Amino acid sequence: MPIQPIPRKTLAEVVAGKLAASILDGRLQPGNQLAPERELMHEFVISRSTLREALKVLADHELIEARPGIGWFVRVPNQSNIAKIHKLAAGEREPVAAPARAASADIPTGPRRLPAAPEKPLRIPNLHTDRLGTFDFISWWEREKVQQARVLVVGAGALGNEVVKNLALMGVGYIYVIDFDTIEAANLSRSPLFRESDSGRRKAEVVAARAKELNPAIHVQYLHGDVITQLGLGVVRRMDVIIGCLDNREARLAVNRFAYWMNKPWVDGAIQELLGLVRVFVPGQGACFECTLTEEARRDLAVRYSCPLLARQNVLLGKVPTTPTIASIIGAMQSQEALKIIHGMPVEAGKVIHFNGMTNTMHTTAYLAREDCESHWTYGEVVELPLRAETTTLQDLFSIARADLGADALIELDQELILALECPHCKTIESVLQPLSEVSFEAAHCPACGTLRETQMTHLLTGTETFLNRSLASLGIPPLHVLRAYNAQEYRFYECTGDLDEALHFNHFEESANHPRTILRSRLRLGEEVQLAETRGNPARGRVNLRP
Ligand SMILES: [Zn+2]
Ligand SMILES: [Zn+2]
């Protein structure tokens, strides 16, 4: 007689295991009543006390429940006890079933399960303690990628609310929100993160704070400011994906250029009444946002830029009627596209998805990429300098640029610098020296006669200016910006990396402010290579300015 291994389980545990196996096999369904005690005693050849011990084991594992005066019932297995069932049932499943399955494994008898991705480790989440647990059941979901992802959300209105909400729920680890607007009553009807008591507060701040509330495990940062002039390119450079939640063409054009320059994908969304569209743009892959502009739109933008002060004014006006429902739909699609980009999954770059909520139709069309598009330009290697925009003078920057590029180095600003305002009527000239964004439309009018004055401005600096002692910040350079210098042969790109800790920390609303910074530092790669998509030596390229 062969020697049997000594069972480590008690008889009651063995019986409990057999009953658990019956639940797994489906012979006992959730809600089914167990057979009466006498029948079970007979089936397993055990005493009443052993049976009751076995039932207690199952009850303790939340697999069955007693209904007083009726009997025992099978509970619905949930994600927290499914692992326990398997453990209990281990070794107790019907021995005949296994070899039979093995023998028939190669016979195609119906739809077969897809093999689990071998690179994805099997994780059995604890759904009581792990808020992201169910995502692990999605075959392609990679928790680490999502938790390490850095997403820039431009705009904290209706779309921005939806997008940031989704990103926070999905556990996207690092979210940066920028918006220059404040909350008013009309925003409350389509912004789930805003409360009535938020009236007058900054949209970006409130959205970031509420995202942190929704999921305290993520890291958030906000900037109350204008993306066109106040966001350092070094922020864009350290993002994985940018999501545009904008309502105007000027800001989209700026985001498009920044994304292209820093070689980052961006997801645009637009809504109006029950219509919406989503577009993914990836540098070097098909059309970009600027490619999609019609001749009329280009002319319109060019006219506005011919009077830059007026252009800025107009951006603040255009309001488009939308519903919270279309914002949810389009914001959800944007979030999903970003999620796919984070996972390195294919996206349809250079195409547009139109959604018509009136007819419930959706269609995708491809845009034509324009050969002569002004946006198609990617920065080369960025030199990280231990400089800060606040304390570095224009002279300092010229010293560095000249050491690299020679005496004829020029520095090209992203926005116009207003040097003076001249009244054609009074013939008076007022020296200004302020970035365009800081001169209001009203201030541009002559204080004496009220005429809109002509602006003298420049974006190209030669190093012979009278204001070389001015700090970069006072000339409109945002913290952590990447500046461009060039000579007749080449471009150089300099980042004010000394601003990094203050400009990009993701620790707003953190209880312990030091925690995320260590992660941030370890992720920074010095002298990161950026592929040149195309090298054309046109010094006028890149500025947010359109030919008429
Ligand atoms: Zn383009
Ligand atoms: Zn005047």
Please specify the SSE layout and strand pairing.
Layout: H1 11-25, H2 37-44, H3 48-60, E1 64-67, E2 71-74, H4 82-89, H5 97-103, H6 143-148, E3 150-154, H7 158-170, E4 174-179, H8 203-214, E5 219-224, H9 227-230, H10 233-237, E6 241-244, H11 249-261, E7 266-272, E8 275-281, H12 295-306, H13 308-315, H14 324-342, E9 351-356, E10 361-366, E11 382-385, H15 394-405, E12 410-422, E13 429-435, E14 454-461, E15 482-486, E16 491-496, H16 500-503, H17 515-523
Parallel strand pairs: 3-4, 3-6, 4-5, 6-7, 11-16
Antiparallel strand pairs: 1-2, 7-8, 8-9, 9-10, 12-13, 12-14, 12-15, 15-16
Helix pairs in contact: 1-3, 1-4, 7-8, 7-14, 12-13
The structure holds zinc ion (2 copies).
What would you say about this model in short?
With 548 residues, the protein is an alpha/beta fold.
Please describe the structure with a list of short key phrases separated by commas or semicolons:
17 helices; alpha/beta; 548 residues; six-stranded mixed beta sheet; 31% helix; eight-stranded mixed beta sheet; disordered C terminus
Verbal overview:
- The protein is α/β, with parallel strands linked by helices and 548 residues long.
- The chain is 31% helix and 18% strand.
- An eight-stranded mixed β-sheet has the order 5-4-3-6-7-8-9-10, with helices on both faces.
- Helix 8 links the parallel strand 4 and strand 5.
- Helix 1 crosses helix 3, helix 7 packs across helix 14 and helix 12 packs across helix 13.
- The protein starts with 10 loop residues before the first helix and ends in a 25-residue tail after the last helix.
- The C terminus is likely disordered.
- The structure holds zinc ion (2 copies).
